Amino acid sequence: MKKILLVDDDKMTLKLLKSQLEKRNFQCFIFPDSNDDIVSFIEKKQIDLVLLDIMMPNKSGDEYLKEIRGRFSRLALPVIMSTSKSEDEDIVSFLKMGANDYLVKPININIGVERINTQTQLKDLMRDAQSFEEAKTINKMLNTLSHEIKNPLTIAMMQLPLIKRNDKSEEKVQRALMRISNLMDQMHSALDQYQGIESNPVDELYKVD
Amino acid sequence: MQVNKAKILEHFDNDEELLQDLVMVFEDSYPNDMAMIEKSIAASDFPNLQLYAHSLKGSLSHFFVDELHLLAKELEDDGRNKCLDHQNNFTVLKDQIPKLIQELKK
Asked: Half-sphere exposure (CA, 13 Å, Cβ side) for A188?
């Protein structure tokens, strides 16, 4: 069930949207107070999409939009602005500021649902694409790592019969042990390279502009 | 004043119960908008006139009554343009909105 955050001061719009969206299997949250931190609220409730009014008494839609875009990119969290017809000129500037789409008030619920679905589906597609890219990157990394470990390990293993065969020659045994030690260092360095890697280049896609 | 109940119901997904709930919400909330508009006109407080007329206009838009919507819009425009050219709209709205509510409750 997709989670929608409604940010609007108009009680009628809120009641109408909540009732109609819940009927269509969305889970709705009403942003409680302009003093609250909208970014924390979104993170805590794991919101999928924000439906944001432009003109509100305590804090305007553009202020909320700036805060949201300071933390989430368009791909990570879609925002649909709701506007009245007289705010037509604002629409372009809101789209430039990072809104994904807009709806004209009074919101036609069927159009609203379609636009919400489009945006949440795009978000899901991007997430799937990211997972796919991540899996590809991890696979490539494991292949390289396996190669970097396997080679020195094979050579180290080949030293063991040499030690056995030359157990009378202290110098030869010492040389073989030194080689094993060097090869173990190589394996250690190879593992070190991959330690601490938590992200991959696909994260760039989700970076805030 | 023309009230197109069929169009309003269509907007509310033909849910008469939801419409009646929203009429109650409107009945509850519009007096505050009206009071703030009256106060803003008296004090020539244009930002608040724009804000509360906008809020009233938004609420009225759910009921598709163009005449009343226009009156609220003109008040909002007055606020934006820092003038009181349409201050008489307030009196008309004060008279007409209770009638609209009565119609919607039928």
From this structure: 6
